[in-house]
Automatic annotation (TrEMBL):
It comes from Heterodera schachtii. The keyword 4Fe-4S does not apply. Pfam families: Raptor_N. Keywords: Repeat, WD repeat. SMART domains: Raptor_N. Transmembrane segments: none annotated. This is Raptor N-terminal CASPase-like domain-containing protein. Residues 44-201 form the Raptor N-terminal CASPase-like domain. InterPro entries: Raptor (IPR004083), Raptor_N (IPR029347).
Length: 523
């Protein structure tokens, strides 16, 4: 009898936790249908070509823009007004194009890059068709900087130059679509970028309608031709109809190129399948909405603030944070260009910041975006994923400067997500560490019995005890961000009330698995 009593007491001790007494709620049938969606690997795609079209016309402002003095001047972190000793023979626009290409190469070194500085329409046509021809079925990125030309017209035109750069020449987005083909991604860093995206979608519909009309005309013409040939050869009308249907099906593979000229047809037909051209599925990133102007008024910011957000999010975050907190004067002017470390090395300052930024933006996107959109933008293409992580940051920074970024597919607002507070805290700690590293170290503190002195040659050395600085005094203090997120995830595992909803730290925890040191602690 005593043995039974002890067994009952042990059972009560070991089975009192909530998971043993709470009601078990099974998953709904609707949820079970999608339980294996995460296992499906989305279709991979690569951005293999990048066209950098820079309409700067340095020294001449477009007629519809009145820039204050002083104003933002830097493009791709290059000040065109400052002479370069290393590149004395290059024009400022060439230095800007070269700097922008190097920044892109850090994001995606294997892509093929070509620049067009203050180009003509014919120059852009040749560039786009060449990029599409080499990319075949892969993605092409079209980067447009329109700081030196008027804003896009309501008729769906962007502005380029003539050969002498004395006139603005319009380029219809309808023609640009034909030259670029699909799949493509467009980055619009210009005034009223939302106008471009709106008209691009309207022209995409026009392309689809024209494709269907030309397809029907060619199909009917081929059917009549085959019927005449079959009658003259003595075959039946039924057989000729079958032959015509087969030819029409084969024709569908390349029918979308009929409305282009011969060169354009050869470039677009290589990437087209037996479907209508999917120009509506192109990805767009715009610096501002329709009717808005870029923030040129702040001379401390780069003129291409949107491009800097997308291509250099760490440096742009630090610069904007210093301006917001009023600490820019505590650092040398070149601090943004001299952040120590390498992006790919997490043991360095720059690499750690990039790792934390990736984790935070992935978590924000995972919380706010639909799953299909998240998979398409953040898991399909490495370059597109990097750009859209930074695009989330650009929404926050551009909003602070009076602009509202736009995109296709359209994303929900993320500027107010609580995880941005962690990013601000990380920037605070980074700037504090940088400030401490840059400060000159004073003389070693030394003690003589009860008194404290600064080391001087006048004191007798045998009376002093030298307390030298630690060997680690000049090293960077690593962030505790991932450790704190692991602790928050552990708290959720133990005390989380709503276990049906995953915690916001989950994507951050998955980033920890990429670190060999933190992986064992997590597992």
């Amino acid at each position: 009898m005593p043995a039974d009593t002890n067994r009952e007491e042990k059972e009560k001790v070991w089975f009192r936790e909530t998971r043993h007494v709470e009601n078990i709620q099974g998953a709904s049938l609707e949820a079970l249908k999608h339980k294996d969606d995460w296992r499906r690997i989305c279709e991979r795609m690569k951005t293999v070509s990048v066209a950098l079209v820079l309409c700067l016309n340095i020294g001449t402002d477009p007629p519809d823009v009145q820039k204050p003095q002083p104003c933002a001047r830097k493009e791709a972190w290059v000040d065109p007004a400052e002479p370069s000793v290393a590149h004395a023979q290059q024009r400022p626009a060439q230095r800007i194009a070269q700097s922008l290409q190097k920044i892109y190469e850090k994001l995606h070194p294997r892509a093929r890059y070509k620049s067009a500085i203050d180009p003509t329409v014919d120059c852009v046509r040749k560039l786009c068709m060449s990029m599409r021809r080499n990319a075949k079925n892969e993605r092409v990125l079209f980067h447009f900087n329109g700081h030196g030309v008027p804003k896009p017209s309501e008729a769906g035109e962007i502005w380029l130059f003539n050969h002498d750069i004395t006139q603005y020449i319009p380029l219809s987005l309808y023609e640009l679509q034909s030259w670029m083909g699909t799949p493509s991604v467009y980055l619009w860093d210009c005034n009223s970028a939302g106008t471009i995206i709106n008209m691009f979608m309207r022209f995409a519909e026009d392309h689809s309608i024209r494709w269907m009309e030309e397809y029907r005309e060619m199909r009917d013409r081929d059917q009549l031709q085959q019927q005449h040939q079959s009658v003259s050869a003595g075959t039946s009308v039924a057989d000729s109809a079958a032959v015509a249907a087969g030819i029409a099906a084969a024709f569908g593979a390349n029918a979308n190129a009929l409305h282009n000229n011969n060169d354009t047809a050869s470039s677009t037909s290589t990437n087209s399948h037996s479907t209508i051209p999917s120009y509506k599925n192109c990805i767009h990133l715009g610096a501002c909405s329709s009717g808005e102007q870029l923030p040129f008024h702040n001379a401390d910011l780069p003129a291409d603030l949107f491009t800097c957000c997308l291509t250099s999010p760490i440096q742009t975050s630090l610069l904007c944070h210093m301006l917001k907190t009023g600490t820019k004067n505590r650092f040398p002017p070149s601090i943004i260009d001299e952040i120590p470390g390498v992006l790919s090395d997490r043991r360095t300052l720059l690499g750690e910041l990039n790792w934390i930024f990736t984790a935070i933006t992935d978590a924000i996107a995972w919380c706010r975006l639909p799953r299909s959109t998240f998979q398409k933008l953040f898991r399909q293409d490495l370059l597109i994923a990097s750009l859209f992580r930074a695009f989330l940051l650009s929404e926050r920074i551009m909003r602070e400067n009076g602009c509202h970024v736009v995109s296709t597919p359209q994303l929900p607002p993320v500027h107010d997500h609580p995880l941005w507070e962690y990013w601000d805290y990380t920037l605070d700690m980074c700037l504090t560490n940088l400030y401490n590293l840059l400060q000159p170290k004073q003389g070693h503190i030394q003690f003589t019995r009860s008194d404290c002195f600064v080391a001087t040659p006048t004191l007798k050395h045998h009376l002093l005890i030298d307390l030298s600085l630690s060997a680690h005094a000049n090293e960077y203090a690593y962030s505790w961000f991932f450790v704190e997120q692991l602790q928050a995830f552990e708290v959720w595992l133990k005390f989380g009330v709503d276990k049906c909803e995953p915690p916001q730290q989950l994507p951050v925890v998955l980033q920890v698995l990429l670190s060999v040191v933190s992986k064992w602690e997590f597992l």
